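Box 3.1 A note on notation
Throughout this textbook, protein chains are presented in two layers. The first layer is the amino acid sequence; the second is a token string describing backbone geometry. Keep the layers aligned when reading.
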Amino acid sequence: MVKKIEDIYNGLDTIPACDGQTDRHLSTAYTRYAYASRSKNACLLSDVETTIMETSIENWNGVDKPFDVALFFNVIFHVESGLRQQLLQRLRTQHLNPGGIVMLIENGTPFTSSYIRMMHGLGYVQDNWYKDIAEEVVACGFRLDFEHDIVSTRDLSNPTEGVLKFIELLFEYAVSTEQIRAVITETYNDPAPGMKSVVRKLAVFGKAED
């Protein structure tokens, strides 16, 4: 199961996944890139019942029956802490079946990596990291059952125009391609080992009372 999830995650920004050993009903939280992944990975989800909806965390009221797994792949840190805790509480008390789990992937990349330094250099300072979010999930009545590092390489030292445009989209304020190129040149010239590595934390949380 972990290998399948890691392979899917490394291929796309956001995609739901499950082992498919039993019929499951997944409630999924998506970033704006999720829909592009559906057709490419349909074969990997052919034995899993899924529900895909486009909504905000604030407006999501669940689905028509309890489910086994809630997936949050690079999305939950975008939600304000108070709303995030409300969602986690509702999942635990209203929406997850007995034995149900929350699975999330969040950023665990060291602050020293080129990618994080580049984002900081462009004015984006992420204040929610995997460790902080994991502590919050546990505080909402879950227990940590499993943890795994997904390590990949993100070398942006010679970015294409498409990559530059993608980075522009990550910011709510205007960032020019010239700015992005300049910061990339500054940060990705560091030859230190591990500078081009990106670490994501995959974690599975069960309900504490189960």
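The chain has a mean pLDDT of 78. The radius of gyration is 18 Å.
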